[in-house]
Specification:
With about 90 residues, chain A is mainly α. Chain A has helices spanning about 15-40, 45-70, 75-80. Chain A has one domain (about 10-80). With about 400 residues, chain B is of the alpha+beta class. The longest helix of chain B is centred in the C-terminal third of the chain and has 22 residues, at about 375-395. In chain B, about 40% of the residues are buried. Classes of the chains: A mainly alpha (about 90), B alpha+beta (about 400). Chain B: Keywords: ATP-binding, Calvin cycle, Chloroplast, Disulfide bond, Kinase, Nucleotide-binding, Photosynthesis, Plastid, Transferase, Transit peptide. Chain B: Belongs to the phosphoribulokinase family.
Chain lengths: ~90, ~400
């Protein structure tokens, strides 16, 4: 089974933006978590920081799954009604 | 209880109107809805014919509510897809609404993500120092009120928790479906919500398997490493053990996913041992069994009739107790490599609630690209989906259908 790259299903700029945003958040939040936990591994701040990492990692994975497996861009129906928004520019590359 | 849901009058013929008198003459606790025709000439395209006849059936429109406890995101999990597929149709996000909605809707089912009931958004949780796993981050009163409303046939405006921005977005309208699935971290945490569930499932992934799956999920991401993945799991573990794990004793069915015992020292998490732990005595639910209900069976289907490749397949079935409840456990260790292995296994299972021979295999094949399609996770998720369909049909047919007719004026 060949898996297309993310753009297999991604059609709209908004989806590309979300994907990029989530990737950047993962990187940022992992760094934050490491810093926070260095001070005190058992603190509430530390566990909340890693919980945020989990949340964005899962969100990224869900997006990837939707695009790669379902080959659907979830902005499809939104963009049918709002084609003029920035998010709904069809990105071609 | 009779439920006739009419959300707007726009969908009706413009010559019809609705009136809801305060009192009924029937003596039941139900709204009597009268449709009458206005005698105006605005009827337009000559529809001078016929009265507006609406039929309302009592009792068959109560929503069946299923709870699914899982730590793997919301409404997009493989389990949900398999479940909605059993009922037919694909589940999709609500059309035209918030594109970041977590809700999935198909013909028969609506899947709600319980993260939508977060009382604290990402910033709020950071300020208070609580994870999403903590009950303090969730509004159980609202969860209870809304699930109760939907169950009794009333549409609700449900909040949306946006996983991308970490904010709570404006609500979306949820209309009562035939089957409502509430999926998330805490479907069985609050006793009042628990009592609304017609069936509940807990997906129990062991630590080793969780680690292996999260590696597969995250390793390609910039920023992640084995250490960060491990650290994230460890940091969440205390809250997970305190708040999420204890729900499993309430579940009618637990799907437990463990590393295989067929390959010594396997840590790849690819071959899995999966146990379907089914509570005895649950209304409308008869546990799946192998060969002889209530006895203890060890079964290796591979042999003369069936050739399997390494590491093979091993089944176990038997009665047990689980947190003080009588249960039956069906266990599969190993993988399916070929179609005929799957159909062979299916033909030896009983009480799987299929409508035709080979239905389990057909469902598994339909989603051959889903994770777990070659092992016990896919098999048991599919079977649980069929048991839920069976439960739904039993519940809806057990209500007396006494049609009421509100006819023309």
């Amino acid at each position: 089974m060949t898996i297309n790259a993310m753009r297999g299903g991604a059609k709209y700029k908004g989806t590309q933006m979300r994907d990029k945003q989530l990737s950047e958040m993962i990187e940022k939040k992992v760094t934050e978590a490491k810093q926070v936990c260095e001070a005190d591994e058992t603190s509430d701040e530390c566990k909340v920081a890693w919980d945020e990492v989990e949340e964005v990692s899962q969100a990224k994975a869900d997006l990837r799954l939707r695009l790669e497996v379902e080959k659907k861009d979830h902005l499809e129906s939104f963009c049918l009604e709002n084609p003029e928004t920035e998010e709904c520019r069809v990105y071609d590359d | 209880m009779a439920v006739c849901s009419a959300y707007t009058t726009q969908s009706l013929n413009s010559t019809c109107s609705i009136s809801t008198p305060a009192k009924t003459h029937l003596g039941f606790h139900q709204k009597e809805v009268v449709f009458y025709r206005r005698s105006s000439k605005r009827g337009g395209s000559g529809s001078s014919s016929g009265p507006c006849v609406i039929t309302c059936s009592a009792g068959d429109s109560q929503t069946v509510v299923i709870g699914l406890a899982a730590d793997s995101g919301c409404g997009k999990s493989t389990f949900m897809r398999r479940l909605t597929s059993v009922f037919g149709g694909a589940a999709e996000p609500p059309k035209g609404g918030n594109p970041d909605s977590n809700t999935l809707i198909s013909d028969m089912t609506t899947v709600i993500c319980l993260d939508d009931y977060h009382s604290l958004d990402r910033t709020g949780r950071k300020e208070k120092g609580v994870t999403a796993l903590d009950p303090r981050a969730n509004d159980f009163d609202l969860m209870y009120e809304q699930v109760k409303a939907i169950k009794s046939g009333v549409a609700v405006d449900k909040p949306i928790y946006n996983h991308v921005t970490g904010l709570l977005d404006p609500p979306e309208l949820i209309k009562p479906p035939k089957i409502l699935v509430i999926e998330g971290l805490h479907p069985m945490f609050d006793e009042r919500v628990r009592d609304l569930l017609d069936f509940s499932i807990y997906l129990d992934i062991s630590n080793e398997v969780k680690f292996a799956w999260k590696i597969q999920r995250d390793m390609a991401e910039r920023g992640h490493s084995l250490e960060s993945i491990k650290a994230s799991i460890e940091a969440r573990k205390p809250d997970f053990d305190a708040y999420i794990d204890p729900q499993k004793k309430y579940a009618d069915a637990v799907i437990e996913v463990l590393p295989t015992q067929l390959i010594p020292d396997d840590n790849e998490g690819k071959v899995l041992r999966v146990r379907l732990i089914m509570k005895e005595g649950v209304k409308h639910f008869s546990p799946v069994y192998l060969f002889d209900e209530g006895s203890t069976i060890s079964w290796i289907p591979c042999g003369r009739k069936l050739t399997c490749s390494y590491p093979g397949i091993k089944f176990h079935y038997g009665p047990d107790t689980y947190f003080g409840n009588e249960v039956s456990i069906l266990e599969m260790d190993g993988q399916f490599d070929r179609l005929d292995e799957l159909i062979y296994v299916e033909s030896h299972l009983s009480n799987i609630s299929t409508k035709f021979y080979g239905e389990v295999t057909q469902q598994m094949l339909k989603h051959a690209d889903f994770p777990g399609s070659n092992n016990g996770t896919g098999l048991f998720q599919t079977i649980v989906g069929l048991k839920i369909r069976d439960l739904y049909e039993q519940i809806t047919s057990s209500k007396t259908a006494a049609p009421l007719e509100a006819t023309k004026a």
